[in-house]
Amino acid sequence: MRQLIAGNWKMHGLGADSAALAEGIKAGAARAGGLACDLLVCPPFTQIAAVARILAGSPVVVGGQDCHAQGQGAHTGDISAAMLADAGATWVILGHSERRQNHGEIDELVREKVEAATAAGLTPIVCVGETEEQRVGGQETEVVGWQISGSLPKGFKGVVAYEPVWAIGTGRTPTEADVATMHAFIREELVRQFGEEDGQAIRILYGGSVKPSNAGALLAVPNVGGALVGGASLKAEDFLGIARGAIARRP
Ligand code: PGA
């Protein structure tokens, strides 16, 4: 399966910046004459429709960074999965650690959001990962195991992103051996939860301080099915540089 390189633009970008970034990625992807990976960008809500229009007809697809668990209703300030789809998104990031920490999202809510996203035809990327304290305490696999069993519904068809919280936006990354250990553990959990065939088919992204200089090594680790990129996805050249590190292979 092809690796997926996903850009999480977070709360960055007014109209002109987002359009320029989308144009840059589109042009770079075309110049590359076909990259060995799938490309996804997740702009803030306000830019999704404009970015989707720019990227229409290109191999780059568009996603949201969150959605509500309900289809519609009295939820001031929230956005439903169907609204994301209507704006041109086909993917959505759910349960990112910034949502879990800043908005008190727990596994059960993330699971409901995954169900809502799937029902609206979006492919969810569900984020899991331990804090620094949990890793120092040797609890990282236990924590990630609970997040996986709590956040993924029955029949899950999507992508999992392992993002150690302490590696996000810090410039620090786990060693390749630590990434290999965690991704092998996640694979085992997915196979246990969804059976051999479906569990093996789920792509497991690594996220946290991925940049062009470390992408090749991280993407070569067994069971790494791509990358979820924050800061380095805000520059077309860096995002494409990471994509060039991707390799075509089984998840
Ligand atoms: P980072 O963010 O690449 O800036 O570390 C990753 C993420 O939060 O998805």
Main sheet summary:
8 strands, parallel, barrel
Give the overall silhouette: globular
Q: What compounds are bound to the protein?
A: 2-phosphoglycolic acid
Question: Which CATH-level-2 architecture?
Answer: Alpha-Beta Barrel
E-strand count: 8
Low-confidence stretches: none
The name CATH uses for the topology is: TIM Barrel
Work out the count of structural domains: 1
* End-to-end distance: 6 Å
The overall pLDDT average reads 96
SSE string:
EHEHEHEHHEHHEHHEHEH
If you had to describe this structure to a student in words, what would you say it looks like?
It contains eleven helices and eight strands. With 251 residues, it is α/β, with parallel strands linked by helices. The chain has a single domain (3-249), classed as Aldolase class I (TIM Barrel), CATH 3.20.20. Strands 1-2-3-4-5-6-7-8 form an eight-stranded parallel beta barrel, surrounded by eight helices. The longest helix is centred in the C-terminal third of the chain and has 19 residues, at 176-194. The N and C termini lie close together (6 Å). 2-phosphoglycolic acid is lined by residues 8, 163, 168-169, 207-210, 228-232.
